[in-house]
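Hi support team,

I submitted a single chain yesterday and got back a structure, but I'm not sure I'm reading the token output correctly. Could someone confirm the output below corresponds to the sequence I sent? I've pasted both exactly as they appear in my results page.

Thanks,
R.
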Amino acid sequence: MTAHSRFLTSFLVATALMSASGCICVTGPSTGSSGDIAFTWTFSGRQCFEVPEVTQVNIQMPGQTLQNNGNYGCLNANTAGIKLQNFAAGTYNYTISGLNSQGTVIYQATGKVTVNGDVSAPVDLLPTSNATGSVYVTWTLPAGTPVTCQYIAAVDIAVDNGTPQSVSCAAGGTTPGVLLQNLTVGRHNIDISARDSNGLFYYRAINSFDVFAGGATTQQFSLAWIVGSAPVKWTFSNGVTQVTCAQAGITQVGITFRNAQGDTTVTANCLNGGVQGYQVPYVYYGDYQVLLAASGTGGVAYYSNSTSPPTISVVAGQFPNVDSPNPTPAILMTP
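Hi R., thanks for writing in. Yes, this is the structure output for that exact sequence:
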């Protein structure tokens, strides 16, 4: 290999290493020109208005004293950046941090910038482990539902099994929706439940969503029924023959639904629309044992079989009436 070839090969290797490092190293006395450094910044590619959590940007350059200790707004003269003036020629290290209102660093970038005359330095700051984001939550109710927002007292929103936040039902149908703030970056679980003033929940959505550092995304969820109707029919026997509500002197019937969570009792008229029975309109979905009790003429008590009570299955979003064959036959009540 000729001397010329050796020189060329060494030059190419040195150039490749310099390029791979992403910087130009100044090892000797500066022979370049002084100048200004115009830093501009983004946050994971987002602009200042997209990261309202960032209230301040701090620049640190070892060996350099910056105005206001390096603290600047995200926007300066309507520009996402700042011009630092009068730097001697050379290479400078920098750390640029985006801070929230508590002074916590939530975005950061480090690097080098070389001055040889005026230089522009675009920097993209990446989220730290302290970064947070926000989400706007909206929802829809089942199509054609008779239980609209006017009947819903509140919607409870819980994130990651935390304490629910109660908001109005209508808030989920507005733009941009209900804002959930200061959420850590990553995937979260959400539980949205709609209830009336008596604490009966009609709809629910359990889902998940992703939070990105800075700014706010919008998530829409479809609330689904968690209740259905439970049609219950009954007959009476005085021990000899079957009797009607009137013959037994019964005006009201107590209906108890029993499952692993306990008993729930409602009271209904004995006769409803000419039928001895009642459509309990909103019952949580699941399987229940049904027990009936009533009081007739002279205080005679009537009960259904409590040893082997009949069962009924309530299906969310299905609302059969008392003419439904479920359950069949009608539950017999005796003294």
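A quick pointer for reading it: The longest strand covers residues 105-115. Let us know if anything else looks off.

Best,
Support desk
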